[in-house]
Amino acid sequence: MSFSSQVKQELVRVHPEKHCCMLSEISALTQTCASLRLAGGGRVRLTYETENAALAKRIFLLLKKRMEITPTLEFKRHKRLGGRRVSVLTVAEGDTRRLLVALRMMQEEESGAVFRGVPRAAMSRRCCRGAFVRAAFLGAGAVSEPEGGYRLEFVSSGSKAETLVKILEKSGIGASIAKRRGSDVVYIRRGDDVVSCLALMGAHKALMDMENTRIRREGRNQANRARNCDEANLKKQLGAGEKQKDRIVRYSLAHSLGALPKELQEIGRLRMLHPEASLEELGQMTTPPLGKSGVNHRLRRLMALIGTEERKEEQTKNVEAGAGADGHHAHESDAD
Q1: Which positions ≥6 away from 131 have C-beta within 8 Å?
Q2: C-beta atoms surrounding 40 within 10 Å
Q3: Helix count and strand count (H, E) for the chain
Q4: Which has the closest alpha carbon to 86: 56, 125, 111?
Q5: What span, in angstroms and rounded, lies between the C-alpha atoms of 32 and 140?
Q6: What is the per-residue pLDDT across 206-241, written as a single tens digit (0 to 9) for each?
Q7: How far apart are the C-alpha atoms of 299 and 292, rounded to whole Å?
Q8: Nearest alpha-carbon partner for 165 in 157, 177, 183
Q9: Which domains, from first to last, does the chain contain?
Q10: From 42, 116, 193, 308, which residue has the greatest number of CB atoms within 10 Å?
Q11: Which pTM was predicted?
């Protein structure tokens, strides 16, 4: 079962107790699951369709308890959905008009019916905002798997999408709208906002599952960063040890370590024998044992002395090369 299905399974068991919250849920479900159908003679009927039997039962009970409307229920195979069975709830003509007026989706005026928006409580009360967002998710929502990142979205359209964004923003949740295959998609990307949305809807178990997954993922990321850092430090340590060994070997062949102070002779021989060893490990091999700072100090002194000799040798080579070049030019002049 996908994470989205788990969230919906949890949410469908959350039942609003307040009449205002029931109306907010009906409003969101009407926007996401319902359509108006012509019944002839200018009459219209509101029809809800859903593949989720538990959601169909929820719509039925909400209409009956809050609006005293008993819709007719039937099942049909939907060819467009691959032959899957769909629950269809149909509201009678008179009840349709009464329901739409209560939802502020229609206002009785001399000029006819006018779409307006959502119940006032859905915008002003936090409990009603939670009920509206919960129903919108049940009707047309999805959330990514926790292991794959954070994204929670609702399929909507036009002014309905803008209304949903306002409701989310009033609850402190950042949301945006994008186009996808002719529909508007209201989406939430920030991890904290996804968590806040789950809490607002009442999906507390899903929220804990997501937070636990986030903690595990962050733990793995920290472990990976630490391992990468250790590997980089090890490569750096090995590279530095090999360079030190090569320089000490060249110096030893040219000058011998015997002329150096005893403590530098000791650390030089240890580095030549153990180029892979860390400073702490080299310190354990000295007599008496040294700490990391002591080994580092001796190696710095030794490298400084070797550096001085290397610079002298380089200067000598440059002088000899210059003298050779002058002699060559002198012979050419004699020949002329």
Answers
A1: 16, 21, 22, 24, 25, 28, 122
A2: 6
A3: 12, 10
A4: 56
A5: 6
A6: 988 888 877 777 777 777 787 777 677 767 777 888
A7: 11
A8: 177
A9: 3-214 (3.10.28.10), 230-323 (no CATH)
A10: 193
A11: 0.65
